[in-house]
Each structure stands twice: as C-alpha cells, then as structure tokens.
Amino acid sequence: MKNLKKFLQDFELYVGSVFISITILVVIMNVFTRYVLKFTYFWAEEVAVGCFVWTIFLGTAAAYRKKALIGVEAIVVLLPLKARKFVQFLVYILMTVISGVMFYFGFQYVYSSSKITAALEISYSYINSAIVLSFGLMTIYSIIFSVQSFKQLFFNPDEEN
Fold first, then answer.
1. Which of 131, 133, 144, 7 is nearest to 67 (CA)?
2. What's the CA dihedral at 41, 43, 46, 48 to 10 degrees?
3. What does the alpha-carbon distance between residue 93 and residue 9 come to, in Å, rounded to a whole number?
4. Which of 50, 153, 160, 161 is least surrounded by Cβ atoms within 10 Å, i.e. has the fewest?
5. How far apart are CA 17 and CA 38, in angstroms?
6. How many Å apart are CA 93 and CA 160, to the nearest integer?
C-alpha cells in the first residue's frame, strides 16, 4: 500500500521516465543502424517524437504539482505577506481557468482528430492525449492549490506558507 501511494504521488515522473527511456533507446538504436549498419527503421522517428511529447507534458504536470515552474515568484516575494497571499490566490484561480480551458480544447482537438502518422499509420490522438492528461492534472492541482491558498489567505493570514 505504501509503494502504491508513493507511485501515485509521483506517477507522472515514473511514466515520463518510461517515455524518455524509450525515446533515448530508439534514437540511439536508429543512429547506430543508420551510421554503422547503413539502414534505418522507418518507424523510429515517430516513436521517438511521440514518446518525447508524452515526456514533456507529463513533466510539465509534475513540475507544476511540485511548484517547480518559473512564475511571477520574483515579483510576488517583494510584496507584503497579505498581498503576496492574495496575488498567489489569484494566480491559482487564473491557472485553474487557463488549464481548464486548455483541457477542454485539448479534449476537443483529440476527440475530433482523424489524422494518422505517416509510417505507423496510428492516430495522432494517442500522441495528443498527453495534452488532455497534462492539462487535466494541472486543472486538478490548480483547484487544490486554490483551496489551500484560500485557506492560507483567510484562515491563517499571518503565517508563511
């Protein structure tokens, strides 16, 4: 149960690690076959790019959850504590709206997509679903951060985060 909890806490990183590992292996394999064996796999570039897209979007969601993305922090830290908490609350509300809208449009895009990849002839929906998952997670995290920020702003106004 403890391992499952740890996995769920960092699942974006674990799944992203699998995707970046596949990307690296496929690229190394393709470079080796191209320059040493004088042939390439027709599907290698599509697999590498698809896995890389998933890595980027899962990494973005993980970084947002850990509050490791660069933001307006440099300006916010100059404000007094109460104003800082208020601005932080507004930022989380804005991020909830933006990530929710991106989730919606990403879902519409994936749902209506009929384009297929050239070599493997699979739907781009499998690749573009990373957009939906990433912004869905960011929306959930933004809601959680908004609630936490609201509590800090109105119920613990004199405490640092």
1. 144
2. -50
3. 23
4. 160
5. 30
6. 20
